[in-house]
Design goal:
- By secondary structure, the protein is of the alpha/beta class.
- The protein has one domain (3-158): Flavodoxin domain (Rossmann fold, 3-Layer(aba) Sandwich).
- It has helices at residues 13-24, 61-68, 94-103, 106-116, 141-158, and strands at residues 3-7, 29-33, 47-53, 79-87, 120-121, 126-130.
- Strands 1, 2, 3, 4, 5 and 6 form a six-stranded parallel beta sheet that branches.
- Helix 1 (13-24) crosses helix 5 (141-158).
- The model has no long low-confidence stretch (mean pLDDT 91).
Length: 159
């Protein structure tokens, strides 16, 4: 199986999650920062996982630019899913809660773009919590990332 995990990371938290997900796939996976990713890296893919920190409810500009630049059917026949890192609004003030209610998180936006580009969503997007804007990741999030990756593996073996 040809698997690619592409991510952007501002403070290192999203990279840690991407690496944890990659661990579950052992040597079957290619892990690239979005700035290293080329359109030809998407050739003959079976599974494409994209991750980004959430900034204003959106993925980073680098992730949005790369995905937005793909042809409409660039991911046809490719299984896809997405993840993000995020501050959980339930633990914060009214302003952040309202902002999240209005804007949401990056992973669902990434998943929507992946589907628009022809990808087949195999698992709902997932968010991994950070304590503050710069992190660190909340306790247990890397373990959750491994568990989420195991769910992805199960879905890809069924399909």
């Amino acid at each position: 199986m040809n698997i690619l995990i592409a991510y952007d990371s501002v403070y290192g938290n999203t990279e840690k999650v991407a690496r944890a997900i990659a661990e579950a796939f052992s040597n079957q996976v290619k892990l690239l920062q979005i700035k290293e990713l080329k359109k030809q890296d998407l050739k003959a893919l079976d599974l494409f996982i994209v991750g980004s920190p959430t900034h204003g409810g959106r993925p980073t500009p680098a992730v949005a630019k790369f995905l937005g630049g793909l042809e409409p059917n660039a991911l046809s026949g490719v299984k896809v899913t997405a993840f993000d890192t995020r501050i959980l609004a339930k633990d914060k003030g009214f302003g952040l809660k309202l902002l999240v209610q209005v804007l949401g998180y990056a992973a669902s936006r990434i998943a929507k773009i992946l589907k628009l580009k022809g990808g087949s969503l195999i698992l709902e997007p997932e968010g991994f919590a950070v304590r503050d804007k710069e992190g660190p990741l909340e306790e247990g999030e890397l373990k959750r990332a491994l568990e989420w990756a195991e769910k992805i593996k199960k879905q890809t073996s069924r399909a």
